[in-house]
Amino acid sequence: MKYQSDLSQIPSCPPRDCTREMRDSYRFVFDPLDQNSFLPQGKKDPQRVNKEEDNKKKCSLLGLSMFESENDACAHYKRLKKFIKNIDKTIGSHLAKGKIKPQHGCITKPNKNGHFDLFESAGVDLTLNFQVMYELSEKI
Description:
By secondary structure, the chain is of the alpha+beta class. The chain contains six helices and six strands.
């Protein structure tokens, strides 16, 4: 797994119920699309992982946040924008769509808001599988 040394420090990470499957997915990204768009929050800011006490949340910080649908992603971005002033600079300014394949890694079960985490396999480059759809500020 990508970031295996970090994941192995957290009990049950990635979660045991993760699955490998084909799934259309939506993610907040930067334009132009590059590796920075596919860096987990816990790798962007390792202190967040160190400060977090809940192992489930700590683990989630090392996965890539994805959404089942465009609507789920936009609704979540709108909620976050109320609390995070510069959200477009921290998690992305655009929405991208891509197809997750079993070889890309394992995914958690989506929550009620359509959010799930992807724990990437080593050597995966998701920039090849995602395309930028639009700037989120134009839709929110």
